[in-house]
């Protein structure tokens, strides 16, 4: 076994530690409140601070307050699809049994967040650009992301045999990840109406701290909320899968006993 195969095997073993449904449910039950309650507290705090107490922008006025919903949802639209792509990789390479279920549950949440991102972007664009929509590179690439989410949701349910749907959707999930760098760098690669990113890894923020702090708080709250919703949906899916398996096994035993009695 070469070094690459050894690393793949060790990584697979690490991921499969929590493949056991019972172990995952116990871990999820402990983790759920640590995501849910901080998400609610931070989201409410950040939104109230940003919408009612942060200063208006000198140029955009009060319309800048849409930022406190639009920016976190834009971040989560891309981050959610990145999580979807990771689940697709785990499914295709390591055949992780929970990766497919996680992808099923991430899709609707990510699509909803992306829809909110597009809607708030249109609300912001109307007073700034004088129109609800332009075929700007950033806006168009996010719209493509929304359709990728919808395509993944439809494809994973399009087959009578679930495993075929999981494989097809996983391929789409990985292929669609090419849209993520386009979303990120579109304002640098093309001449667009969309403003450049105000927060970057390499440079200092271009907004005042009185706006940056509530934005950071609500973004963290939304991110924890996204995780809490997906985790709750995934726990429900795992429990539903266990119940179906138990019912199928019970029916099988009943059929066997009936056949023996006959």
From TrEMBL:
Top-level lineage group: Bacteria
Its transmembrane ranges are 34-54, 74-94, 106-125, 137-156, 168-191, 211-234
UniProt keywords, alphabetically: Cell inner membrane, Cell membrane, Cytochrome c-type biogenesis, Membrane, Transmembrane, Transmembrane helix, Transport
**Gene Ontology annotations for the cellular component aspect, listed alphabetically:** plasma membrane
- Record keyword ATP-binding present: no
Q: Which Pfam families match?
A: Cytochrom_C_asm
Principal location class: membrane
According to the UniProt entry, its GO molecular function terms are: heme binding; heme transmembrane transporter activity
| Record's subcellular location | Cell inner membrane; Membrane
- Please state every residue range assigned to the domain named Cytochrome c assembly protein: 35-194
Its membrane topology is listed as: Multi-pass membrane protein
Family as reported in the entry's similarity comment: Belongs to the CcmC/CycZ/HelC family.
Q: What does this protein do?
A: Required for the export of heme to the periplasm for the biogenesis of c-type cytochromes.
Q: What is this protein called?
A: Heme exporter protein C
